[in-house]
Design a protein that fits this description.
By secondary structure, the protein is of the alpha+beta class. 23% of the residues lie in helices and 26% in strands. The strands form 6 sheets. Strands 11-10-12-13-14-15-16-20-19-18-17 form an 11-stranded mixed beta sheet, with helices on both faces. Strands 1, 2, 3 and 6 form a 4-stranded antiparallel beta sheet that branches. Strands 25-24-23-26 form a 4-stranded mixed beta sheet.
């Protein structure tokens, strides 16, 4: 895949101009300061080059941040890595003759750097990132995780007593190991503790979404927290460059909380702005004052900001990272439509140290963090493996956790592995997440997954949030609406629009719920969207 362009000395106005000249063969361009290669890079350059010294050509080109591209010497065909791909640069390439000045400097897809997680995975595994090439690494790390868990965790010491020392001999054999369930941790978290108590750096108490049982206590060692900040740092490379302001609307007041870990992970030069969510008005005021480049937060909170009457303050954002909850496609499109920014998705949970998968900007789904986790998709009832493209329950084994090791952990999330290679060029597997099995409404027409309700309701361009109140075999719906400028915004019209959307859900069986529309032109009142289903007593 090649990109050509005649710039005639001109380039995008919003890019920083930098230049560096290298003599001899093309080895790549490096800026002043530390030479850390950043993904990604693409090149468009002038087809008319200028004569340089020693029979060479001086070539000027603009670099754009487009995933998965390395430069290629137009003459030798040898690849050369691009360093800090942003701005205008100049370089010198040798030619046999000064005749034929129409040379093309080309960029081509490279499987080695198709995604910001690719280099990180290669560094951790020492293997190319395809599933077949990673199989030996995963098998080795699973054996090590099993040995460590059996030696340090009382729960796994009992569970693994009947398995041979070299188990598993293959990834298929690993599928014989019984699942670990969230209820196992909730029943006795101390049975999972695998490090001395005086080395525990943080304890997190979490209640599983959609359940009312005992909460889980998860223990993290200092090494676990260090691994988390490393994952966060690599994930943020594609969203926040040097000097970027990053606003984080996640809990972060406590040391080593998820927001605090994200602050710690940001690269030197980035400016973290920790702003826990306290309502749309105060957060949007902060955005208007600080003008951040990137926003990180739960999807329901971010969409309520984007569709707020004062939401235009978010047009300063170049990227948004959604995390901590299921992310409907309609919600993602709503954010893009309101702010015109790139939107990224993150998948993780407390039990995995907040890591798991991260999207790129080109393809569907999220790339798995294969260097730190082993993922499976199984049938939720039989436990049998589901082939690529089939939906099932997501099973995860963190390969490095020390405090609370987990083997074949049932996440309760619906998902699938997307077949084929991502358009970004990465060989890392991609996963699509479809919400939780336990989050749904049992209605006369069948189970209505909350994910389907999310997709339906967030497609309404004026909807800022909603709450469902479950009552026996029916439910009532409260919808928060932000009137669109210049459009009719009475309650009657918006209720009709909502009913037309819900009518396409077969589980309702033609029986629509009671719908209450809350219109807030000033946007000061809000429904906190942390829990969208409320069960009546």
């Amino acid at each position: 895949m090649c990109h050509r362009g005649s710039l005639n000395g001109r380039g995008p106005r919003n890019l920083r101009k930098r230049s560096s000249i290298s003599s001899g063969p093309l080895h790549g361009w490096r800026p002043d300061g530390p030479c850390r290669r950043t993904q990604p890079a693409a090149v468009m350059c002038s087809e008319t080059c200028f004569p340089g010294e020693g029979g060479s050509l001086l070539l000027q080109a603009w670099l754009f941040r487009t995933p998965g591209l390395w430069t290629q010497n137009a003459f030798s065909g040898a690849p050369s890595s691009v360093w800090e791909p942003t701005g205008l640069f100049s370089l010198s390439v040798p030619v046999r003759s000064r005749r034929g000045m129409d040379v093309a400097f080309m960029a081509k897809m490279s499987p080695e750097c198709g995604n910001p997680l690719e280099e990180w995975t290669l560094r951790k595994t020492g293997s190319p990132c395809g599933p077949d090439s990673l199989a030996p690494f995963h098998l080795q790390r699973l054996r090590a995780a099993i040995e460590r868990a059996g030696r340090t965790s009382p729960f796994y010491r009992k569970l693994l007593a009947s398995f041979p020392p070299l188990f598993p001999r293959s990834l298929e054999e690993y599928g014989r190991l019984p699942f670990t369930c969230p209820g196992d941790i909730a029943e006795d978290p101390m049975e999972f503790l695998a490090v001395p108590q005086d080395t525990v750096a943080r304890i997190v108490t979490a209640r599983t979404s959609g359940t009312s049982g005992n909460p889980k206590r998860v223990f993290f060692s200092g090494g676990d927290l260090s691994d988390t900040t490393d994952m966060f740092s690599e994930g943020m490379r594609n969203l926040a460059g040097d000097g970027s302001k990053v606003m984080i609307i996640l809990p972060g007041k406590r040391p080593e909380s998820v927001g605090d870990l994200l602050v710690q992970s940001l690269r030197a030069g980035s400016v973290p702005l920790l702003c826990p969510f306290s309502g749309e008005g105060p957060v949007l005021k902060k955005i208007d004052e600080e003008r951040p480049d990137c926003l990180v937060g739960p999807p329901s909170w971010v969409i309520s900001l984007a569709r707020h009457p004062l939401g235009k303050a978010g047009k300063c954002l170049s990227s948004v990272l959604l995390c901590s909850d299921f992310i409907p496609e309609s919600l993602e499109l709503g954010i893009k439509s309101s702010w015109g920014c790139s939107v990224y998705r993150h998948y993780g949970m407390t039990e995995t140290g907040y890591g798991g998968a991260l999207s790129c900007s080109l393809g569907p789904g999220m790339h798995l963090m294969e260097g730190s986790f082993y993922f499976e998709i199984v049938h939720p009832e039989t436990g049998d493996p589901v082939p690529e493209g089939g939906e099932g329950e997501i099973i995860v084994t963190p390969l490095l956790l020390e405090g609370t090791p987990l083997l074949r952990y049932r996440t309760g999330d619906r998902g699938m592995i997307i077949p084929g290679k991502c358009p970004c060029g990465s060989s890392l597997r991609r996963m699509k997440v479809r919400g939780r099995y336990s989050n749904g409404l049992d209605l006369p027409g069948g189970i209505l997954p909350l994910a389907d309700l999310d997709e339906t309701l967030f497609s309404l361009p004026w909807l800022g949030g909603y709450e469902v109140r479950r009552e026996h075999d029916s439910f009532a719906l409260t919808v928060k609406g932000y009137p669109l400028p210049g459009e009719r915004a009475d309650v009657y019209t918006l209720r009709n629009e909502t009913e037309r959307k819900l009518a396409f859900l077969p589980q309702l069986n033609g029986s629509l719920p009671e719908i209450t529309i809350l219109l807030h032109p000033d946007g000061e009142q809000h429904i906190l969207p942390a829990k969208r289903i409320v069960y009546s007593s």
